Amino acid sequence: MAVTVLVPTVLQQRARGRKSLTSGGSTLDELLDQLARDYADLVAVIRKDGALCRFVNVYRNGEDVRQQEGLRTVLSDGDEIQILPAVAGG
After folding, report:
1. What residues does each domain of the chain span?
2. pLDDT score of 87
3. What are the helix (H) ranges across the chain?
4. 50 to each of 41, 46, 56, 65, 78, how far by Cα in Å?
5. Are the beta carbons of 5 and 32 closer than 8 angstroms?
6. How far apart are alpha carbons 11 and 2 in whole angstroms?
7. What kind of fold does domain 3-85 have according to CATH?
8. Are 11 and 84 in contact, with CB atoms under 8 Å apart?
9. Which residues are CB-neighbours of 48 under 8 A, at least 6 positions away?
10. pLDDT for residue 90 is more than 70
11. Rounded-to-integer distance, Cα 69 and Cα 64, Å
C-alpha cells in the first residue's frame, strides 16, 4: 500500500529537503512508525508520547484526522496525508 505524505516547506529540512514522501501502513500510527525509520526528526514534530502533537494538524484526504480516529485513522492505498504545523505571530 502506498500513501503520500505532503511535507510543508517549514518541515522539509527534517525530510532531507523532500516535498513529499511515500510510505505505507494500515493506520496513521503505523505510517508514522514506517516514516520514523528514515525521518525520525520529522515524525518527532508530528507525534510525541503516543499522541499527535498539539500544534500540528494532520489531514487525510483533506479531512482532519482528529475528527476521525486520530493516530488510529485507517489508511487506504492512494491516500494523501498533509502535515500543517500551526503558525503564530504577532
Report:
1. 3-85
2. 79
3. 28-36, 40-46
4. 15, 10, 14, 15, 25
5. no
6. 21
7. Ubiquitin-like (UB roll) (3.10.20)
8. no
9. none
10. no
11. 9
Please name the residues in contact with 13: beta carbons below 8 A apart, sequence gap of 6 or more. none
Other residues' Cβ atoms within 10 Å of the Cβ of residue 38: 12
CB 35 within 8 A of CB 15: no
pLDDT, average across residues 27-52: 96
In the DSSP assignment, the letter for residue 19 is S
* Numbers of helices and strands, H then E, in the chain: 2, 7
Amino acid at 68: Q
3-state secondary structure of 18: coil
C-alpha cell at position 42: 520529522
| DSSP category for residue 53 | -
Q: Which three cell numbers stand for residue 85?
A: 504545523
CA 6 from chain center: how many Å? 8
7 compared with 87, residue with greater pLDDT = 7
